[in-house]
Write a structure and sequence with these properties.
The chain has about 60 residues and is mainly alpha-helical. The chain contains 2 helices and no strands. It has a domain of about 35 residues. It holds the Pfam family DUF6480.
Length: about 60
């Protein structure tokens, strides 16, 4: 095989890598779910701590 040519496997692999829409959509969705869940848990814990008087300021 000449040095300038790429094997056909490399061409199909790069084609698969260049069109990964379903594969990239799912981790992004899970990232947003995880970030939102962590923020909601932090806010809920903050308000519970305020409500039961753990923080110096509260209701």
């Amino acid at each position: 095989m000449p040095a300038g040519e790429t094997p056909p496997e490399a061409g199909s692999a790069s084609r698969a890598v260049s069109h990964p829409q379903p594969a990239t959509a799912r981790p992004a969705t899970w990232t947003w779910i995880t970030v939102t869940g962590v923020v909601v848990l932090l806010l809920a814990g903050f308000f519970v701590a305020m409500g039961i008087g753990l923080l110096p300021f509260g209701w």
